[in-house]
Structure to design on (226 residues):
């Protein structure tokens, strides 16, 4: 378990990075193949999930926020929440980036499906089943896979309609009493949607559909999955 005294000596965002196990976003590299696409999805999903969950907890806890790290039961709940919110963010961003690629015309729907299923498998393979993710995380992984396998890529549009999993995931998993979450629900849902606006802008800027298509058709680096 994390040393609470050492954790409390850090700034709030440093605490989040240590506790949630996420790294700071690096330089904005162009996405040119399956590997860089996977990294883009996981890092941006981490950013949205950590700022959303941690921000909500800090808002509700107020001056008592440091005390959250002193209670094992609360730490366990935050751990479970962090993984579920993260995976929901990964799910939404996987669909959104696939939609951008499909709408670009560089790849057809079948190729997009194969690519994105492979990316999803790589992400799940890297993550595994974290020991602190709770007993329901396996089911969440299955839902992510089922969603990606069931997407009709040609029917998607480049907007925010793909972000259906991450807002309710924060409401559901945040370790805050249900009465308060019912009061906060609309604000919390909108706060997550707002955090995706910049990520969507960056995705449109950094994804290079032509290069990704060339890497796929040319037999370059590509995540597995059929």
């Amino acid at each position: 378990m994390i040393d609470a005294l050492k954790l409390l000596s850090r700034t709030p965002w440093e605490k989040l990075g240590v506790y949630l196990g996420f790294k700071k976003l690096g330089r904005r590299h162009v996405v040119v193949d399956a590997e860089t696409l996977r990294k883009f999805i996981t890092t941006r999903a981490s950013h949205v999930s950590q700022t959303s969950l941690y921000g909500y907890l800090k808002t509700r806890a107020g001056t008592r926020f440091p005390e959250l790290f002193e209670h094992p039961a609360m730490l366990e709940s935050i751990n479970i929440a962090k993984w579920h919110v993260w995976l929901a963010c990964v799910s939404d961003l996987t669909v959104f980036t696939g939609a951008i690629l499909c709408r670009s015309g560089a790849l057809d729907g079948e190729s997009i499906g194969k690519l994105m299923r492979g990316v999803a498998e790589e992400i799940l393979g890297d993550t595994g089943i974290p020991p602190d993710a709770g007993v329901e995380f396996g089911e969440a992984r299955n839902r992510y896979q089922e969603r990606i396998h069931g997407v009709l890529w040609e029917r998607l549009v480049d907007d925010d309609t793909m972000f259906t999993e991450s807002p309710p995931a924060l409401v559901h998993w945040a370790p805050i009493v249900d009465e308060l979450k019912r009061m906060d629900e609309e604000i919390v849902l909108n706060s997550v949607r707002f955090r995706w606006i910049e990520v969507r802008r960056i995705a449109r800027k950094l994804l290079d559909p032509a290069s990704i298509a060339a890497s796929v058709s040319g037999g370059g680096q590509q995540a597995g999955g059929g």
